[in-house]
Amino acid sequence: MIPGRGAAALSTLTLAAGLAAGNAARAAAPPPTPSALAFADGRPGASLNGAWHVIVDPYDNGSLDYRSQPRPHGYFDDARPRDRSDLIEYDFSRSPTLQVPGDWNTQRPDLLYYEGIVWYQRRFDYDLPPSRRAFIQFGAAAQRATVWLNGRRMGEHEGGFTPFAIELTGYLRPRGNSIVVKVDNTRRADALPALNTDWWNYGGLTRDVRLVSTPRRFIREAQVQLAPGDGTRVRGFVRLDGMQGGGVPITIEIPEARLSQTATTDAQGTARFEFAATLERWSPESPRLYDVIVRAPGDEVHDRVGFRTIATRGHDILLNGKPIFLRGISMHEEALGRGGRATSRADAGALLGLAKELHCNFVRLAHYPHGEEMTRAADRMGLLVWSEIPVYWTIAWSNPATLAAARAQLAEEIARDRNRASVILWSVGNETPVSDARNRFLRTLVDDVRAADDTRLVTAALEHRAVDERTHLLDDPLGVALDVLGLNEYVGWYDGLPAKCDTLSWRSAYDKPIVVSEFGADAKAGLHGDALTRFSEEYQADVYRRQLAMLGRIPGLRGLSPWILVDFRSPRRPLPGVQDGWNRKGLVANDGTKKQAFGILRDAYKAWPAPAPAGGSR
To answer: Which helix (H) or strand (E) holds 54?
Structure first.
């Protein structure tokens, strides 16, 4: 048995006891610094949401000629005929439009299954004062984006779920700017996610697009959180952009607590600080948020921040020093009722409202970083969050480019949500088959998390193995590096019939908290039968009754996030009249209809007991 440790202690273990085979991977260059601007919504600028003209381009004709060679001029030029004899075979102004933010799959029936390239174009005016800088920030572009301004290539980004910004200073015109974005959601074996997933491959500019104006020297990012430990000290950093040399004074204020602290930047433009503070703790029962102000000469940003600590001790997860049981649910980022990618504050509120109705204090945001509206809503509503990147099933474990992409997406996820009190778990993978290459890959990501953020815990959704017909064992070698062990299992659906739950027992090789991160069964809302009729509400309900009884017997169980809150689209699910392209494991149908199992989980969570003392079993 391997004793449990808190985040700080386990970091030492990870570095000191890493397998020799993983040393080369962990000695690789650090992930790139994220380009996104923190606090972008609070800065001057202009929204570019709304109707964008689009050209669907399955052959990449906008970039390549008939011999597949790069075009010197293409759709990125946004050209117009100079006279009636000029041959230009496209016209954005006469092309149809799509709404941004939004996926293209659910906005046009002919694009439902489309995977490939769509060119987006929009014209705008923007008069930038000479003393300011300008950026365009994309909340997400699924999966790869290249950006041109007025025919000039400005930059690119890969990763369909995290934000990025591109500087436009010096290239904007007061009138008549044209922004063109080539978005490509083609699946690739070396990408994240890879070729095989169990969710819809939505494409497009799926989150907000905004012009952002900053001073010449501005606050690029800041972290203000409680330091690990007894929760009596605030710690963090502020990073400036556009400075030359160090010595710039920084002020951090929490006015409601009458706290103010100063720090000074180093030669790299980063100021680090730590100071004593007495603050009301954020928790699901009391999701207290404070206004935090960060000032530098000529710049000021605000954030709403909750302060809490999270750690482990033996089998226990400790929130603010006290054991907590995570009553959770897994969810995809799909809009309730409307379908397609969730894009708004209202979408987030509707989904998380269902979680609150279940008496949840926890949500697993699977299998990729959900939008910032979701984590900010979780902050306000008092829901703890598991957040993960799309290292999912089988990917190109030995490909350095795939590892670099995973590290970049992880760094971008952490940078965006580093001040969200709700986020307590960074997940580095889901149901990944054990191999030496996979172990090295994931250990690198674990080390990246620990280097970037010691105020949260590290987890992964792991698989297990059968010791015999009545015993399953969780002994994935990655477990030694994690704080919390995620466990995915489908006893009663893919693994036998529901009655198997009654006699099955579970063991773990690690003295650490376990969160059963997936279990469940498909049911089409309104389809009825007995408890052995597959896809009926009764079958799903029986699985939940028996699973909850079985899981309550697991030593070290400290949380659940059944699969899943709401039905979601998946091309892997073709069964006519039942699935029709939907994974039906939701407790709620996409139209909002609650299935029988919803009430079973809701009632169980309402009565669920507190966890046993540290080191004990339930």
So the answer is: strand 50-56
